[in-house]
Specification:
Blueprint (H helix, E strand, L loop, with lengths): L20 E5 L5 E4 L1 H7 L3 H4 L14 H12 L4 E8 L5 E12 L5 E9 L3 H21 L4 H16 L3 H9 L2
Length: 176
């Protein structure tokens, strides 16, 4: 089932406090491993997602600039934390705090990516959800070619005004 055929609903699934969604992807973002909690929350069977792009679960409410930042970090060999709204096979959604890190071979070369997602702080989502709506609106208003740079500029300006890095912003929200 392709992601674009999923009709989003307003039904939210909330992760349990002790849940961890784990997956691995290759350099192109294709899923090479997942745990049972990934299957449970996404609603997809393993044969529907294994080898497919991880963006299969990307919710249309997610600003593209967040994934641009994520990919920039991990392709540079850096880990990143990000709040992500995912879509389920049935159209419902769930929020996660994702930690994505590069996986390396014995020579230190990046061979894929490893992601562990956990339940986000609900108070953090009170800040993130409106921010993501704002970033998405900026992307839509800017047009396809300028969407991501326009939203990234807005995000950079917000962080600069707060005097924090992106990572510090995310981690501070989780600690609310």
């Amino acid at each position: 089932m392709a992601r674009q055929h999923i009709q989003p609903t307003l039904k939210e699934r909330v992760m349990r406090d002790d849940d961890f969604i784990v997956s691995k992807a290759d350099l192109k973002g294709r899923i090479t491993y997942s745990n049972q909690v990934f299957a449970e929350f996404s609603g997809f069977d393993e044969n529907e997602y294994m080898g497919k792009q991880h963006n299969l679960v990307r919710h249309p409410d997610m600003p593209r600039c967040i994934f641009k930042m994520l990919w920039q970090h991990i392709e540079n060999g850096e880990e990143i934390f990000a709040y992500v709204k995912n879509i389920c096979k049935d159209g419902s959604f769930y929020w996660v705090l994702a930690n994505v890190t590069p996986s390396r071979d014995v020579q230190g070369q990046i061979v894929g990516y490893y992601s562990v997602r956990r339940k986000p702080n609900p108070r953090a989502l009170e800040v993130i959800a409106p921010l993501y709506r704002e970033l998405l609106q900026i992307e839509q208003n800017a047009g396809s070619r300028d969407a991501i740079p326009a939203a990234l500029t807005h995000m950079h300006n917000l962080l600069q005004k707060k005097g924090v890095s992106y990572e510090r912003f995310i981690l501070d929200l989780q600690g609310l």
